[in-house]
Amino acid sequence: MRVTAFAIASLVVVATGGVARSAAAVIGGARVSVIVRTLAGDDPSAWRWGDLHRVRFAHALSFAPRFAAGALPAFPVGGGPFSLDQERFGTAEPPFGAVVGAGVRMVCDLADPDHLFITLSTGQAGDPESPHFADQLPSWRAGKLFRLTLDAARVEDGRETILAPASTSA
Questions:
Q1: Is the separation of the CB atoms in 62 and 127 below 8 Å?
Q2: Could you read off the pLDDT of 27-73 as tens digits, one per residue?
Q3: Cα–Cα distance, 60 to 30 (Å, whole number)
Q4: What whole-number distance in Å separates Cα of residue 140 and Cα of residue 122?
Q5: pTM for the complete prediction?
Q6: Are 52 and 40 contacting, i.e. CB atoms less than 8 angstroms apart?
Q7: How far is the C-alpha of 61 from the C-alpha of 93, rounded, in Å?
């Protein structure tokens, strides 16, 4: 039977700070430490999750010149795959980027069916030229929610907007 160095390292248990871990885990942890120190510096007190996990919102049609302005600058985010402020790694290699889980945050009080609290990660408009394109982003980043009235009688103002494609006359 051939025994490899990895097999031996996997069987050896090293006590570190009262916690028993396999040698492979200790070696793996040392590799991670070197990578993190390379990316974030030698002072662990200065390490910030958001320095390596940044989200960038881009318009779904940002490949078209008209919507290219819909790519917002990247900014740091917290959270992880198992937190309330969920985000996922954007890539497997650092810097990791982030894929946001909660683009819409909404809280509904079942005792108050005429209202809810909500914020969108960017804004209500999909048009980068609209003042409402990214107007909710600061509130979303701060975790602020807006109270929204659902009572149709209080919301209706009699106006109607019809969106139609521009005419293309030859």
A1: no
A2: 666 777 777 788 888 888 888 888 888 888 888 888 888 888 778 88
A3: 40
A4: 8
A5: 0.64
A6: yes
A7: 26
